[in-house]
Design a protein that fits this description.
- The termini are far apart.
- By secondary structure, this protein is α/β, with parallel strands linked by helices.
- It folds into two domains: 261 residues, Rossmann fold; 46 residues, no CATH class.
- The protein is 42% helix and 15% strand.
- The protein has an eight-stranded mixed beta sheet, with helices on both faces. Strands 1-2 form a two-stranded antiparallel ribbon.
- It is globular.
Length: 329
């Protein structure tokens, strides 16, 4: 066995089950396993999608994509969920391969979906081997870019912490096919995809003497929480944009392939536009939360029925903007 970053040789699940971290020799056999699975999938005309990242909803997103159907009602994707085998999170990989949602959720649809795509349909598998990226037609990257300054209101002077994204894009750029589409599906500050991620991919392509422009795009889902993630994500993975003409065509085709026929996602010319949509949407929701929190506290302290207050206000057409705030209560 090999040592993890913290010199531990085991990864322990929340329920106490121990999983030995993979050895170097196991990486070779693991890639052979993945190659055999993807060969079968390609013979069935399935697109190979590798989802990588540490987000809470990343396994659910992978399962949702694996559940995609073509016009004939047949599965159109084979999905590999890849994450780094660190001791704190490696246990998620073998659990997912048992058809279990590794995090746990009050939404039974998630457990049912993961069991269905892993065990019944066998369209989703989990791995620790980053060389799985060499097999991908499409790579979906889900990682966070935080604001270390924590200075509210400082729009033009604050900086975004993007080193994790840069490291991940370097790993991706070292391995992917020149024709693989890379989708950043994450909360990123406007400009991150074009001005941070794209140069990293481009540099790695140049090191490999690849003349093709990287096919990089940004997309995001409007699902708020795991509680209704499966249902909402079927309809709300709705915004996307590519860095060039080829990536725009590819992201359009990909998003349409995971949506119902009668649903069309919103597509922009540049990723900075789709990133702005996400940030404005999040800012709007957070502003509403703060606003209603203040007035809820006032109502609680003064014996006011705040729900009744809102119902009265919403009766007037001029206040129809409040109709979208029902999910906050």
């Amino acid at each position: 066995m090999t040592l993890s970053r913290d010199n531990s040789v085991f990864s322990i699940s929340p329920l106490g089950e121990k999983f030995p971290l993979p050895s170097k020799d196991e990486y070779i056999n693991e890639l052979k396993r993945l190659k055999a699975l993807t060969d079968i999938a390609r013979s069935q005309q399935k697109e190979i999608v590798v989802v990588t990242g540490e987000g809470l909803s990343t396994p659910v997103m992978a399962a949702r994509i694996a559940d995609s159907k073509n016009s004939n009602g047949q599965n159109s994707k084979f999905v590999i969920w890849c994450q780094n085998p660190a001791s704190q999170n490696y246990w998620k990989t073998p659990l997912l391969n048992r058809g279990l949602f590794p995090v746990g959720s009050e939404n039974p649809q998630i457990s049912e979906l993961i069991f269905d795509v892993v065990i019944r349909a066998q369209n989703l598998t989990a791995t620790y081997n980053p060389d799985s990226l060499t097999l991908a037609d499409c790579v979906i990257v889900d990682t966070q870019c935080n604001d270390p300054d924590n200075q509210p209101g400082e729009l033009f002077s604050s900086e975004t912490q993007a080193h994790e994204l840069k490291n991940l894009m370097k790993i991706v750029g070292e391995r992917i096919s020149p024709y693989s589409l890379v989708l950043i599906e994450s909360t990123t500050a406007p400009g991150i995809t074009e001005f941070v991620a794209y140069p990293v991919l481009k540099e790695e392509f140049q090191k490999r003497e690849i003349e093709n422009e990287p096919l990089l795009a940004h997309t995001f889902s409007g699902a708020d929480s795991l509680k209704e993630y499966v249902t909402k994500n079927r309809r709300l993975w709705r915004v996307g944009a590519g860095c060039n003409d080829n990536s725009r065509r590819r992201v359009r085709a990909f998003l349409k392939s995971i949506h119902p026929d009668n649903y069309s996602p919103a597509l922009f010319d540049r990723p900075i536009e789709s990133e702005t949509v996400m940030m404005v949407e999040n800012s709007y929701k957070n502003t509403l939360l703060a606003f209603f929190n203040e007035w809820s506290l006032f109502a609680e302290r003064n014996g006011v029925n705040f729900g009744k207050v809102l119902e009265v206000i919403k009766q007037y057409p001029v206040n129809s903007y409040l109709s979208g705030s029902d999910h906050l209560f």
